[in-house]
Amino acid sequence: MNFLEEKTLTETYHFKGKIINLRVDDVELPDGSTSIREIIEHPGGVCVAALTADGRLPFVRQFRYPYKEVVTELPAGKLERGEDPLDAVKRELAEEVGAHGANWRSMGKLYPSPGYCGEIIHLYACDIDIAGESHPDEGEFLEVEYIALADAVQMALDGKLPDAKTQTLVLKLWAESQQKNH
Amino acid sequence: MNFLEEKTLTETYHFKGKIINLRVDDVELPDGSTSIREIIEHPGGVCVAALTADGRLPFVRQFRYPYKEVVTELPAGKLERGEDPLDAVKRELAEEVGAHGANWRSMGKLYPSPGYCGEIIHLYACDIDIAGESHPDEGEFLEVEYIALADAVQMALDGKLPDAKTQTLVLKLWAESQQKNH
């Protein structure tokens, strides 16, 4: 599908931050004309649906500053430099929820907003082996709540889980369980 | 849940672009300490699952520059300034796929990456009334393919639809149809 491809002509950084960088590239389009692309660079993230023996998942409620509202999400976080995604997601589950998982498996990747953002969120599922207390990072404030998978699916359908990774992972886990039952 | 809230102290723009702006805010955390937040502003987007009479959905394949790869997505686009999301999604379906929808309904909202990005993607479903030819914007290069809903669900589970809005909307539409059948 090379006839869709865009070629980089120049890359110019306008911002390098703690978490994100912003770059504006000149590109050559498939018809030979040129345009610009505004690009956010991000180190990548992880997210986990961690199932208890009685079919519930831990969720985290935290204030999401860009929306100025409290959002209910599955445990998640960003990759440290050079960190393996599986190590990162185990760390986040321990920090945010205090739980340790078993039977870890990949649930695929998520591109949050592929028009301008290069972040990749790695999705995982696991079983909760040991539940405990959360130990959030300094400057991180959150509440943990366990919700049954079927109730979380209904919350996603009712618009109560707007976060992209959370909706996707809850619905994927449920779709898998439905397929196994048929 | 005011005990989770972060208060804005200052806002500083570092980039104002064609599509996105980047702002760094000083904030006061719930414990009275201060931190910074790197924020992307975006006008918002729309996405549609448009079902044909025989249960297929039009998808769009296009080169996504941040990932340097061709990504398969449901028809989508960004809001023009002041545009109503429903008008925007009808416009995008006509431009990208050449189809006109009927029985439009909201499928909720999507927050792509709520840690740093303020974009809201408005999700819709409709029935395809009139199919036609795509009329992409100048500088927009894409291919259209119709895929059966059940096959799209399997593609999402197999990791072949990494785009967040696409995975979410396909799985939501399928979950709704499963609930109706039970």
What does this structure look like?
Two copies of one chain form a homodimer. The first copy, chain A, is of the alpha+beta class and 182 residues long. Chain A folds into two domains: 2-41, no CATH class; 45-180, Nucleoside Triphosphate Pyrophosphohydrolase, CATH 3.90.79. Chain A has helices spanning 85-97, 149-157, 164-180, and strands at 7-16, 21-28, 34-41, 45-51, 56-64, 69-73, 76-78, 100-110, 121-130, 143-148. In chain A, the strands form three sheets. The first copy, chain A, has a four-stranded mixed sheet, with helices on both faces. In chain A, helix 2 (149-157) crosses helix 3 (164-180). The radius of gyration of chain A is 19 Å and the shape is globular. The relative contact order of chain A is 0.18. The model of chain A has no long low-confidence stretch (mean pLDDT 94). The interface between A and B is large, with 73 and 74 residues.
CATH architecture of the largest domain in chain A: Alpha-Beta Complex
Oligomer: homodimer
CATH fold-level topology of the largest domain in chain A: Nucleoside Triphosphate Pyrophosphohydrolase
Number of domains of chain A: 2
User: What is the CATH homology-level superfamily of the largest domain in chain A?
Assistant: Nucleoside Triphosphate Pyrophosphohydrolase
Q: Please summarize the sheet with the most strands of chain A.
A: 4 strands, mixed
**Order of SSEs of chain A, N→C?**
EEEEEEEHEEEHH
Query: Strand fraction band of chain A?
Result: 35-45%
Q: How much helical structure, as a percent, in the residues of chain A?
A: 10-25%
Q: Structural class of chain A, please?
A: alpha+beta
How many E-type strands of chain A? Answer: 10
